[in-house]
């Protein structure tokens, strides 16, 4: 029996590899939603434990209440904004489709002629461009119509997919709260690393998830509330604009400027120069300087102290280059939800490097 042990170990490792690959293949369509739920549950698990004590240790009740709270604070505003944007974009594209359906080669030629005459081109160049547009008028109109249909389908298709994603994430969130301690225990048992390093990785993941997520949400809430109050005072839809500001504030550097700069241009074009100036002041100074540059580091430090985070956690969370690049990379790879995924994945990679350095520090070249 002893002679077969190496083959048994090898065969077991093969089975383990097949099992892991099979699970990833099986749950592939749900991995993003599950990972999002893991981040949310990990970031707020300390508050789940506090709530657990208030409900006399009833895990089902505490998990349900925390899931409902996270849904109301995080997921519901995103869903509201998605619906509003989808409806607004759908109306715009619907109007564009109606207008395009009424166009023909003759009307397109008149419109293009008026547009070309307004451009600072020589008369000979204007005539050549007009001829080219007139010859290809039918194909250009057909392309515009097909593009409008494609964009409408893309917007509402993405909305449906995103809502399905959110519902699955909330469903998984409940079980991650309720069974989180058991899942963590099984991961430690299955990991070949020493428990010290298992705890180091899990603790860093928990701290960074909490710091990154809660700081982003806190700053987004502050910026959104400030702009909502400003919008209401100017007679604008405060709830929609405030939510849009809060969501876009997740994006580093540009952030809420994606909303307040176009809003400023629209107000200025309408002759509301005082309102436009107030939007610029609040967007650039109050939100951009006071909240983003001064309040964010203070909020990160406060959250880190409340969860017992160390200097390494603060260094990663405050590292501008890592945060900016990982956020944009997450946005490219995963879409909107990558705003959460990117920084957490980058932070976990740095944690693995730290574990390797700590475990192999005796023979690493430090000269």
Characterization of this structure:
The chain has 367 residues and is an all-alpha fold. The chain is 84% helix and 0% strand. It has 14 helices and no strands. The longest helix has 54 residues, at 137-190. It is globular. The model has no long low-confidence stretch (mean pLDDT 77).
What is this entry, summarized?
The chain is 84% helix and 0% strand.
Distinctive features:
globular; 14 helices; 367 residues; mainly alpha; 0% strand
Measured on Cα atoms, how large is the radius of gyration? 27 Å
Report how far apart the termini are: 49 Å
- List how many beta strands DSSP finds: 0
In round numbers, the mean pLDDT is 77
Helix content: over 70%
Shape verdict: globular
Low-confidence stretches: none
- Largest sheet entry: none
Strand content: under 5%
- Give the SSE order as H and E letters: HHHHHHHHHHHHHH
Helix/strand structural class: mainly alpha
Number of helices: 14
List the helices and strands and how they pair.
Elements: H1 5-26, H2 31-43, H3 45-54, H4 59-101, H5 105-117, H6 123-135, H7 137-190, H8 195-233, H9 238-248, H10 257-269, H11 273-307, H12 311-317, H13 320-334, H14 338-359
């Amino acid at each position: 029996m002893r002679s077969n042990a190496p083959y048994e170990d090898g065969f077991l490792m093969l089975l383990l590899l097949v099992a892991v690959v099979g699970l990833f293949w099986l749950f592939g369509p749900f991995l993003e939603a599950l990972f999002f739920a893991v981040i949310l549950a990990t970031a707020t698990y300390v508050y789940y434990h506090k709530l657990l004590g208030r409900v006399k240790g009833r895990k089902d009740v505490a998990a349900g209440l925390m899931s409902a709270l996270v849904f109301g604070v995080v997921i519901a505003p995103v869903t509201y904004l998605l619906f509003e944007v989808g409806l607004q974009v759908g109306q715009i594209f619907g109007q564009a489709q109606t207008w395009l359906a009424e166009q023909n080669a003759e009307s397109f030629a008149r419109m293009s002629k008026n547009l070309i005459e307004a451009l600072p081109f020589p008369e000979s160049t204007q005539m050549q461009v007009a001829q080219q547009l007139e010859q290809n008028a039918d194909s250009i109109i057909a392309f515009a119509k097909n593009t409008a249909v494609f964009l409408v389908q893309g917007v509402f298709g993405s909305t449906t997919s995103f809502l399905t994603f959110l519902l699955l994430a909330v469903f998984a969130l409940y079980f991650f709260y309720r069974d989180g301690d058991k899942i963590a225990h099984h991961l430690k048992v299955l990991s070949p690393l020493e428990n010290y390093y298992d705890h180091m990785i899990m603790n860093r993941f928990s701290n960074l998830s909490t710091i990154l997520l809660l700081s982003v949400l806190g700053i987004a809430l502050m910026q959104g509330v400030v702009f909502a109050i400003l919008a209401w005072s100017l007679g604008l839809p405060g709830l929609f604009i405030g939510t849009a500001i809060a969501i876009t504030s997740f994006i580093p550097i540009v952030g809420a400027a994606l909303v307040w700069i176009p809003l400023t241009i629209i107000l200025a074009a309408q002759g509301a120069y005082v309102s436009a100036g107030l939007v610029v002041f609040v967007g650039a100074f109050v939100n951009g300087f006071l909240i983003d540059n001064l309040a964010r580091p203070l909020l990160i430090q406060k959250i880190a102290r409340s969860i017992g985070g160390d200097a390494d956690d603060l260094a990663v969370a405050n590292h501008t280059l890592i945060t900016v690049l990982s956020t944009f990379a997450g946005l490219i790879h995963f879409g909107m939800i990558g705003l959460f995924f990117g920084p957490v994945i980058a932070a976990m990679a740095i944690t693995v490097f730290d574990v390797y350095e700590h475990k192999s520090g005796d023979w690493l070249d430090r000269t």
